[in-house]
């Protein structure tokens, strides 16, 4: 039989029959004592830090988490591209963050603002102690989908763009045909009201109300996406619903970054097969991550801002004619740390099979080459080792620092055919964005060279 493919017309009746619904909360599962203790440890740390923080600092730290959640909840659905650097720049409202959003494409700003407004609705439910109702959930959907006019529908004649009904339960089936021709069935249209009513009954039981916030958040999220009551936007609404319970417990939202999408979906798929432990564990980790993010934001707020120190440090550097060798070594290691991380990041992005690995060695480097005149080599060196099934490529990374401090460039990275010269002010008091970009490009070139050599040795 020919596979009909994911874009073939749905057999609605068959898909409807496959719907099994969500479990009662009594069948959801529990949190192990070890996991509960782990949550309590981070919650206690957050509570202690919150007591010592000013209201302004606390509000700012939580706002970073909320903005991150609001931005990436749309990215998870593929509404726009994002990455950790972009997310954090927008979350902390860093330099030119608004321009960065505009550069992501038309409509991204409007989607982000609608999602941000949705988290305000979540906070209203928590602070004013409103119950979660179907009417409120429909308002959440209407708010979060406000900028969207249409959505894609698989009809009898194929995929079509149709008007998106906002704040209204679906009127057409939204089952999904998988690549193997099978169905992922959501609640049939005529069962949505009953299923939503049953979900709200479950979260009002004494057992649910006394449960751990991780169990509450993971359960309502999973049950909601099983129903899939709206034509579109169900994932974003589900994450907002889950945030209610993290807010109530620890005054934090649920933050899921877009690069965690695969493990997130894997956990939900495992739950569809009756094993809820993966979803519970995923929500536990995300809650702890968010508590750490807020705590570290509060710690950062207690330290002087870079801008406040920049002038003083610059004056020190202007007055100080010579840096001792230990200071130069420290700055060299700072550069190599960026190189190390960038090699690892770019290699991980390749997602090569397990037979390939990237490692770092600090063996004796003197045999590779001598430093250029007026520079000396110290301990700031490493070997990048790229291994294949039967091949091994080494890339020496040596950073030479000046002996003559009148030279315009304090450091030279790998003095050879691909020589990278670095000014002192690009490293101290901190590594500049320009240098980070240059180092990233340099690593890209070196890694490409190593991969090409590895492919040649392997005879490909």
Please provide a written account of the structure.
The protein is α+β, with helices and mostly antiparallel strands. It has 2 domains: 12-300, Orthogonal Bundle (Fic-like fold); 312-457. 53% of the residues lie in helices and 11% in strands. It contains 16 helices and 9 strands. It has helices at residues 12-18, 33-52, 55-76, 84-91, 97-103, 108-127, 134-144, 192-203, 206-209, 213-227, 234-250, 261-272, 277-302, 306-319, 325-350, 433-457, and strands at residues 150-155, 158-163, 176-177, 183-184, 357-361, 375-387, 392-402, 411-413, 420-422. The strands form 3 sheets. The protein has a 5-stranded antiparallel beta sheet with strand order 5-6-7-8-9. A two-stranded antiparallel sheet has the order 1-2. A two-stranded antiparallel sheet has the order 3-4. Strand 6 (375-387) and strand 7 form a beta hairpin. The radius of gyration is 27 Å and the shape is globular. It starts with 11 loop residues before the first helix and ends with a helix. The model is unreliable at 1-5, 316-321 and 366-370 (pLDDT under 50).
| Count of discrete alpha- or pi-helical segments spanning 4 or more residues | 16
CATH topology of the largest domain: Fic-like fold
CATH classification, class level of the largest domain: Mainly Alpha
Tell me the β content. Answer: 5-15%
Structural category is alpha+beta
Tell me what the CATH architecture of the largest domain is.
Orthogonal Bundle
- Please state the average pLDDT score: 86
Broad shape: globular
Can you give the helix content as a percent range? 40-55%
Give the strand tally: 9
For the record, give the distance between the C-alpha atoms at the N and C termini, rounded to a whole number. 38 Å
User: Describe the biggest sheet?
Assistant: 5 strands, antiparallel
């Amino acid at each position: 039989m020919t596979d009909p493919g994911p874009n073939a017309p749905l057999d609605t009746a068959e898909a409807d029959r496959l719907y099994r619904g969500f479990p009662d909360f009594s069948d959801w599962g529990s949190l192990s004592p070890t996991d509960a203790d782990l949550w309590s440890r981070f919650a206690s740390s957050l509570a202690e830090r919150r007591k010592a923080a000013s209201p302004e600092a606390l509000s700012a730290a939580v706002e970073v988490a909320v903005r991150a959640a609001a931005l990436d909840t749309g990215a998870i659905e593929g509404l726009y591209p994002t990455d950790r650097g972009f997310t954090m720049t927008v979350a902390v409202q860093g330099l030119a963050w608004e321009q960065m959003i505009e550069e992501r494409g038309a409509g991204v700003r409007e989607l982000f603002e609608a999602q941000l407004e949705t988290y305000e609705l979540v906070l209203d439910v928590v602070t004013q102690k409103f119950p979660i109702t179907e009417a409120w959930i429909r308002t959440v959907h209407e708010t979060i989908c406000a900028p969207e006019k249409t959505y894609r529908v698989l009809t009898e004649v194929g995929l079509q763009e149709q008007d998106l009904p906002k704040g209204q339960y679906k009127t057409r089936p939204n089952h999904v045909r998988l690549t193997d021709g099978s169905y992922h069935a959501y609640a049939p249209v005529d069962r949505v009201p009953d299923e939503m009513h049953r979900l709200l009954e479950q979260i009002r039981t004494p057992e649910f109300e006394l449960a751990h916030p991780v169990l509450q958040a993971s359960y309502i999220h999973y049950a909601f996406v099983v129903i899939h009551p709206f034509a579109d936007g169900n994932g974003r609404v589900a994450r907002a619903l889950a945030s209610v319970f993290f807010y109530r417990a620890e005054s934090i939202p649920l933050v899921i970054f877009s690069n965690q999408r695969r493990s997130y979906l894997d956990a939900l798929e495992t739950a569809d097969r009756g094993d809820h432990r993966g979803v519970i564990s995923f929500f536990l980790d995300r809650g702890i991550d968010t508590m750490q993010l807020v705590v570290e934001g509060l710690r950062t707020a207690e330290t002087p801002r870079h801008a406040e120190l920049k002038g003083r440090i610059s004056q020190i550097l202007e007055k100080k004619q010579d840096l001792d060798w230990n200071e130069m070594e420290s700055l060299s290691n700072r550069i190599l740390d960026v190189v190390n991380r960038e090699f690892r990041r770019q290699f991980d992005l390749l997602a090569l099979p397990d037979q390939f690995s990237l490692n770092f060695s600090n063996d004796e480097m003197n045999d590779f080459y001598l430093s250029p005149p007026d520079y000396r080599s110290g301990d700031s060196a490493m070997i990048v080792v790229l291994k294949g099934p039967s091949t091994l490529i080494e890339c020496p990374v040596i950073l030479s620092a000046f002996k003559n401090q009148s030279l315009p460039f304090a450091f030279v990275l790998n003095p050879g055919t691909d020589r990278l010269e670095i000014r002192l002010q690009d490293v101290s008091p901190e590594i500049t964005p320009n240098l980070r970009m240059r180092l990233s490009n340099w690593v890209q070139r070196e890694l490409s060279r190593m991969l090409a050599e590895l492919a040649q040795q392997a005879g490909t």
